[in-house]
Design brief:
The protein has about 260 residues and is an alpha+beta fold. The protein contains 6 helices and 14 strands. The strands form 5 sheets. A 3-stranded antiparallel β-sheet has the order 1-2-3, with helices on one face. Strands 4-5-6 form a 3-stranded antiparallel β-sheet.
Length: about 260
């Protein structure tokens, strides 16, 4: 058998080939292959990458596809930074890139390295997810942004780069359900909307906190009167229970909602 290659058998009895390499006392699996030659080619390419700095991330498209791009990234990162990471991450001093292709990557703070070295990012409908405890979790939740938050509506990329997820580059505009920041004639207001026969405006408020509480109040009224019972709750953690209760009682919401007749 050629160096770095060994055989294995599938459950149905089919013979296939696996390839692996050892570098700096780390045993690295390179994948499964249908032929011995393909497995051997993967081994020799991996050996070249690990021992020759002429290979860079940008060289993937011009080289043999014996290795997946994900494996290509992990090997080059291991060679350059001395850390083996299973996900397609390349380390820099204070941040790292998470790659999908040589030109397609996202930037994260180094503080997130442990998380993304153990969680694989997937994309669906323009959103980024990881599998966490068996659930698909939008990575925006790590920043306190609502699931399916929309850039430029719920949050901003400060430097304009929508691939830069470093914490200093994320500015949250709308932290709460149903709350939207508006600027009119130089003044910032927070508009509260709730889904009731379409997007219904509950009111406009000077503080984001009041707007969030107004959403809760409107939802509570609608539920009590027998309308949609699936409204989420805004948790206003900076207020004590007494402060929250006091603000809730004083806040005014649309009379259209408060004057609705009970359905039950």
């Amino acid at each position: 058998m050629k160096p770095g290659v060994y055989t294995a058998i599938k459950k149905d009895g089919t013979l296939y080939y696996r390839s692996s390499i050892t570098y700096q006392n780390k045993h690295i699996s390179l994948g499964s292959f249908s032929t011995e030659d393909a497995a051997s080619l993967a081994y020799h390419l991996a050996d070249s990458i690990l021992h020759d700095t002429k290979y860079g991330l940008e060289d993937f498209s011009s080289c043999s596809r014996a290795l997946s791009f994900r494996k290509w990234v992990t090997l080059i990162n291991f060679r350059d930074n001395g850390i083996y990471i299973k996900t397609p991450v390349y380390l820099y001093q204070k941040y790292f890139h998470y790659y999908f292709s040589p030109e397609d990557y996202y930037i994260f703070d180094i503080d997130d390295l442990f998380y993304y070295s153990t969680h694989t990012i997937t994309r669906r409908g323009g959103h980024l997810f990881v599998s966490d405890y068996g659930m698909q979790v939008n990575i925006l939740s790590r920043y306190g942004i609502k699931n399916y938050g929309v850039a430029e509506r719920d949050f901003l990329f400060v430097n304009g780069n929508k691939r830069d997820f470093r914490y200093e580059n994320i500015e949250i505009i709308n932290r709460y359900h149903g709350v939207f920041r508006k600027t009119h004639q130089g003044k910032t207001l927070y508009e509260t909307r709730i889904h009731w026969k379409g997007d219904f405006i509950v009111g406009r408020y000077e503080s984001e906190t009041d707007a969030a509480i107004a959403y809760n109040k409107a939802a509570s009224v609608l539920i009590r009167k027998g309308y949609d019972k699936k409204y989420p709750v805004n948790y206003v953690e900076e207020l004590s229970p007494d402060e929250y209760k006091n603000r809730l009682g004083k806040l005014k919401i649309s009379k259209t909602i408060t004057d609705l007749k009970d359905l039950i």
